[in-house]
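We both want to read discrete structure tokens more fluently, so let's practise on a single case. Once you have written the record down, we can walk along the chain together.
***
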Amino acid sequence: MQECNSIILKDIIDVDEMKRILNSFVLATGLGAICVDAQGELAIVPEEHEGYCLFCKEIRRDQEGRKRCNESMNKAGKLAAQLGEPYIYRCHAGLIEFAAPILFKDLYLGSISCGPVLMWDWDEAAVEEILSLTNDLGINREKLIDAGSNIKMLTGRNVQAAAELLYITANHIAKSNIETLQQRKELNDQQSQLAEMIFEQKKAEERIRFLEGRIKCKEYPIDKENDLLDKVRMGDRTGAKKNLNEILSVIFFHSSGNIELIKARILELVVVISRAAVEGGASMDKLLGYNYSYIFELASMNRFEDICFWIVKILDTFLDTVYESRNIKNSNLLG
């Protein structure tokens, strides 16, 4: 388990959705629940929770008490992440809380901290222990004892069930946003490469114009297309993507931003790539089905960057189909 410096909790978690879920949890169970980041600081607090219970609020009035609360939540969240499951623990003030980790792959981004609860009677012995643990804090003892008497009491089974529910919920939300984050990164990387290629092509054409007085650059790099098709037939994913990006930069440059012209050229490119995939061993019937749906998808797009990201995913699909067909043939031969 690692901590992540480049990705923060709110990159992965939809704040409004998490607030809605935590609000429902608080109302349904009567337990407090908040979301803390990788440093143990408050990140998402549902309106129904109002931050903390009266007991916790009294503890956190003291600076040292607030520090210990944050340290407890931070430590518990990291231990939960290491275990890969909810972690039930006693906080620094002696009450039961539990942490459900929020992970991005193997990176710890934060946790849902829930509680406090009691798993024993609020009797004289319990009060004495609480006062002993908080003896050095500058707080009102009477308010603390009164607040403690209102803390919800649960069985171990109830606590475990509540912890599991929060863990499953939080990580379902996180996983649903991971794909979007990855797509955004891939799109940014691709756009950066395209921008660099377009810039280099523009410089090259200006150099030719200066030397010869006219543009001798081809309007369409047929040699690059042939290289692309060869790599598709061979199943060379990395080489094919490199050639595709070079072709996309040329299409953009020579289309003068005309999105309909760009889409027409992209559709032609999809067709020839699919033919090359069939020549590489892919199923013709499967690719024909793909191509039919791709026509409607492309028609709905109006941004060049979206089209670029889309055709790269299509290339991946075609290559996956090539690999799949080869694996089936190899299995048949071995059988």
In short: The longest helix spans residues 156-212. Confidence is low (pLDDT under 50) at residues 210-218. Residues 2-179 form a domain with the Beta-Lactamase fold (CATH 3.30.450).
